[in-house]
Amino acid sequence: MNKPTQSVDAHSIMFITQRPELVMVEGQGSWLTDNNGKRYLDFLQGWAVNCLGHGNSGMIEALNAQAKKLINPSPAFYNEPMILLANLLTDNSCFNKVFFANSGAEANEGAIKLARKWGQTNKSGAFEIITFDHSFHGRTIATMSASGKPGWDTMFAPQVPGFPKADLNDLDSVKKLVTDKTVAVMVEPVQGEGGVIPASAEFMTSLRKFTKENNILLIVDEVQAGCGRTGTLFAYQHYSIEPDIMTLGKGIGGGVPLAALMATDAVACFVPGDQGGTYNGNPLMTAVGISVIEQLLAPGFLDSVKAKGQLLRSELLAISEEFGLEGERGEGLLRALILNKDIGSKLVDLARERSPEGLLINSPRPNLLRFMPALNVSADEIAQMCKILRELLKQVS
Ligand SMILES: *Cc1c(COP(=O)(O)O)cnc(C)c1O
Questions:
Q1: Smaller CB count within 10 Å for the chain: N or C?
Q2: Rounded to two decimals, what is the model's pTM?
């Protein structure tokens, strides 16, 4: 018997994108439930945000306890969770200082400002930041200008100047863009929105060497690839390099709006008036961040992310063989399956519409499916996802 589906009256929601006619109402672990009671196996997890899945009890406890204690002392004062989380992040990275933000774009704005400030103070006003084709750094005007998304250069013209674009994994293309105005290179260790394209170890180590020798800062945008997503706490740790600046977002809050700008002592050169924000470092969000980072650092957790990344990788490779597709790529639990036709968005729709249970995946390029499950996804849920994927690929072939 089919229950009548509830219609969605969303006429007051400003149109920014086509959304399916359903409302998500509940989540637990790797599963979401909509307003009709239908369940979805969630391999989107809020766009690689809910690193501990839906309804994580540690996060909920931290949120409740902090809400009862203190929500907003104002950014003019220190608060306890802000200090604790900053220490946790510096103790477990090569960075010494943290500025908290509310979104990845805002953290990247801060990184751009910090690099330009450093250029004013230390490098005769150098301000250009070399970024990469197909990179994604956010949706503010400056971070859109920094991004290498096709079409974004004219979308809200004029852009913020000073972001020449190089090619990922091609050091010569970086060298060609360097001038006496170059202050930094900003790179995603794995390009996420660009189609899950990892920077090679050789590129990252030679880029670090080159930038160091030429007094150029290295900024890693780990908004998507950081916080355990690739199997190490931070993605730069795969390469045994030490960047000057790092930004975090998405996973650091496990679903709540929290982001961070981190820098070494040598680079953290803001003076009063340069940087701030009403909600920055608020105890409610930083308390959740502590719970998230502590869970990621629990013994064995990151090893299990690596193991599940390997499992997902071998399953996707098997599917690719079976259906004559073009392989897979990624790092840890940020992976993509490369299709042989531009049917990504069709598969995304079929997966969501499937019954009785739907599957949530995404297609950052027409010939690509991206998987960003919770980092505590079970082997059984990976198997269920692959079973559904096989069923859908049969359906379209
Ligand atoms: C999502 C993302 C951003 C933007 O983060 P928001 O929180 O959406 O502002 C920036 N950089 C990368 C690499 C991202 O994946």
A1: N
A2: 0.97
